[in-house]
Structure formats: structure tokens, C-alpha cells
Amino acid sequence: MANFAHQRSAAYGSVQRQQQRQQLLGLNAFDRHKKMMADYVNLYGGKLPQPQQTVKTDLDVLHEKYRFIRSEEDDSEDSWGARLAQRYYAKLFKEYCIADLARYKEGKVGMRWRSEAEVIAGKGQFICGAKGCDERRGLASYEVNFGYSEAGEQKQALVKLRVCPEHAMQLNYRKNKQLLKAQAKSQKRAGKERDAPERAKHGHAEPAEGREADGGEIVAGIILGPSCLGRIKGYSQAIWPTAVTLTNGKKYDSLQTFNVVANVGLIFFMFLMGMELDRSLLRRKWKHSVPIAVSAILFPFGVGVASSLWMYDVNKEGAAIGWGPDKTAFTLFAGSSMSFTAFPVLAAILTSLNLLNSEVGLQAMSCAAIDDVLAWSTLAIASSFSKSGSPVDGLYTCLLAALYVAAMCFLVRPVLVWSHAWLAKRNLQTHRYYLCFIFIMVIASAFTTEVIGIHAFFGAFMAGLMMPTTAHYADELFHRMDLVVMEVLLPLFFASSGLRTNVGTLNTARYWGLTLAHHLDGVIALNVGLSLGILSQRMFTMLILMAVVTTIMTTPAMCLRSQDGGRMVDGWGM
């Protein structure tokens, strides 16, 4: 009899399992989940979220009050339904996670396992897995690497995160931002490369458009200065008066006023140079670029330092009795002036050769940027030694400069980034008041470095480095400043270099053979050296003349190359 009862129960249980399976297959995923969780809670405890109104069916009443309908399998925790519910719950517990996206803009996502109530309710599986979100529609699944601690041991797990479209954008915010930035840069570079052959055919080059004219501006200054027209009797006093007495009794020097305006052009040009450096490129390439850049700068810097030991005495010849610059400042100046890479000119050449986006072009640009930063920093140190007059004071100035750089990096830049992001949301990043604030910031930064004991150009350069450089904002700011700085103020700076050049001081062939400057970026360094008293008038003239000659040679060479066709073989110009 017992054997018959057992067989009857097994047959009935098999039929019931088939019916349960068919019932589960007929449900959708969410209803099947609720059924499994209900079975799990009934058998193993826990709490189900109660609906607002519970309606019992006749079958529920029969199951509660009439024992004869219940099978022996229903009372056993080893039944097929119980085992299925337990396996389903155990699988879900570490398959999905909950995410906190409050700091998504910083690229930080907090994750945790789901609680029992969340597993039963379907939070993170059928409801958005973002903290505080109850959206059920349009959920997308992501596999995320979840690092967690269990029993004091650090573990990693690949889990699922299901979020709504809004939180999916937050989850991928950093990635999408980088893709958009890279896409904007590639479109900008593609546009420049597309126009480069036509521009090169007419002797133009991007992005250093118009830079070849700077040599002519220096020549114009030389003609207007003491080298040519200045030799005419009465010309200098009539055009460039140096001792005019004003009504208040003060002496007025027209050249000094001209140089002040020219230095304003230098300050804003250095600001644009700082903005022009691609910091993202430096971050991507620094591991390979730093060793190359340092090795590339060591040779010219060493040549400059070695030549300074002999040129120091030549620099003092013809100067006033007792005049002489600080030897440390002169040595650092000679090394740094030989180390500049003519960054804009290099960019123009690579663009005209369609190499700017190649591996060679990117490597060359990153190395040139690092070399220029090192060269300008060395020139700033030379400026501090020249103004202080002693090594101890020079080191003190360098310490103040280091504190200034730290303040710019950790105080000023976060404020600029935050203000730019706040204004960008309201489309006010190019508002005139904000642009006025930027101009004031540039002047204040330049003034600070001048007070510290370093030339004002370094403060303007640092202000440019700290600026946010999103593609649209950088283009708009360059467009607004380019006309005034590059076409008005900077030509005055180069013309002032010519006005201070006196070819008559080169009265022997020996001095004509000492022209060592190699490009117009060095002209800025030469003017800094003259204003700081590191260079004499004669040495300044020698170096300026060579800068003019090498710059004027650049444009014909580029035109000849574009006329030859400039075939490209494997990415290299032939």
C-alpha cells in the first residue's frame, strides 16, 4: 500500500512539474520573476512588497483551508519548485548591481550588491539600477567590472548594470566627452589638411599664417632705426625724440613708450602660445616624447652653454666701463636661446606636408612642445638670476616662481575650468565680460611674475597653459584675439627689435661671424635678454640679423618645395 502511494505521488509530482514548467514558460520575464520570488519568500522567508489591495482567489482559499488539494511535494523544501526558486535567487544575487552616479562627471561610479528586498522587487533587473531611479522603460544592459571586499579580501567580478537612457548617458559621460573632443579635433585638422595644399601653392602655411612677414617687420625697424635712417642728421630727434620735456617738467622718451606697447603685444602673444600647446597630446605621448625631447634639447643647450664661456667677454666689448651681466644668467640665457624649436613654424611645415596627423607629426609636435616649455622655463630662471644679482636671491626668486606655478595649477586652473563649464551650459563662454576677465587675468599673471623677479612673458605663458582648450572655445578666442595681437601688437614688437638694432656696432668681420640665432621665436628671447641687461647692444644686433636672414629664407624654401610637387612616399616628403 505504501509503495502504491509513493508511485501515485511520484506520478502526480511529475505531472505537476510539467504543469508548473508550462505555466512559467507562458509568463513574461517580469511575471516569471515575481512568481519565483513569491515561491522563494514562502519557502525560505523574507518579505515581498505588498500591493495596495490584496484580492484572494478561490484557489488561494482552497490552498489555505483544505488540505486534500495540497500534494506531499508542496510541504517539502526539496520540491522542484523550491529548488528552482532557490537557484534563481542565488543566481540573481550576484548577477546584477546597483550604481551611484552622483559623481559621474568626475568619472567616478559607486557600485554595491543588491539587498534581498531589491532582488525580490526586481530593482536593478527590471527597474533602473541607478540609485533613486524607478524607471522601467528603455533599460539597457552594461557589463561592468565590480571591485568589492569580501571577508577582508579584495575581489573582482563582471556584473550586469541595467539603467535607463538618462543614466546610460551619465554612465558613459567621460567616454562620450572624449569621443566628441577627438572628433572635433579630427574635423578641425582634416579641414586644415584639406586646405593646406592650396594654401601652400600660394606661399601660405597654417597655423602660423603670416609669420613669414615678421622678418620684414624687423627689417622695417632696422631701416627706421639707427642703422639706416637714423644716420641722417636730426632724423632720430625729430621722429624718435628721447629727451622731450613735457609741461609738467618730466622727460619723455618716445622709444620707451613704443617699447611698452610692444611688450603688451609680447604678453598676449605668449598667452596665445600657451593656449596653442596641446596638453592632451602631451599627456598621450609623454612617455615616448620626454626622453626624445630631453635628448634633443641637451645638444643645443650644451652648445649654448659652452659658447657662453667665450661669448661673455665678446658681449662686454664696446659696452660701458664696468658693465657686465651676471655670468650664471648669461650662461642660462645662451643655453635657452639655442633651445627653442619654433613651435608654430614646425606646425606650419607639418601641415603643409600633410604630416600633422601622422605618427611622425604627432611625435614631433609633442617633443617640440616639451622643448619649448623647458626653454621658456630656463629663460625665466635666467631672468630671475639677472634681476636678483646674486645666486642666493636667484634661488629665492625661483622658489617664489615655483609657488606661483603651484598656485596657478591648483587654484587658478580649477576656477577657470569650473567657470568655463558653468558658462558653457548657458552658452556664455564667449561673453564680453568673461573675455574682459580673461584679459585682466593675463595682465595680472604677467604683473605677478614681474614683481616676483621673472619677466612678464612667463606669467602670460602660464595663463595660456591654464586656460580650458575645448575646440569651439579655443577657436572663438583665437578669432577674437588674432587680429589685434598678430596684426597690430606683435608687429610693433618685432619693429621695436629692429629699432634697437644698430648695424654700425659690427665694425669687424669677427662680429659678423657670431650670428647664432636661428628663428624668430629666438627674437623674443633676444629682446628679453636686452631688456634685462644680459645682452649688450652689439651682441643683440648680431643675433637679430641672423634671425632675420634665416626667417626670410624659410618662405622661398617652402615655395620651391611646393612647386616641386612634394611627392609623399610612405608618409615622408620626397
Automatic annotation (TrEMBL):
Annotated family: Belongs to the monovalent cation:proton antiporter 2 (CPA2) transporter (TC 2.A.37) family. CHX (TC 2.A.37.4) subfamily.
Organism classification: Eukaryota, Viridiplantae, Chlorophyta, core chlorophytes, Trebouxiophyceae
Compartment(s) of residence: Membrane
Pfam family, any one: Fra10Ac1
GO molecular function, one term: antiporter activity
Basic and acidic residues bias (residue ranges): 190-211
Membrane topology type: Multi-pass membrane protein
Keywords: Ion transport, Membrane, Potassium, Potassium transport, Transmembrane, Transmembrane helix, Transport
Annotated transmembrane regions: 258-277, 289-312, 332-353, 394-412, 433-458, 478-499, 511-534, 540-560
GO biological process, one term: proton transmembrane transport
Boundaries of every Cation/H+ exchanger transmembrane domain copy: 216-515
Any single GO CC term annotated in Swiss-Prot or TrEMBL for this entry: membrane
Sequence segments annotated as region (Disordered): 184-211
InterPro entries the record matches: Cation/H_exchanger_TM, CPA2_transporter, Folate-sensitive_fs_Fra10Ac1, Na+/solute_symporter_sf
The protein, known as: Cation/H+ exchanger transmembrane domain-containing protein
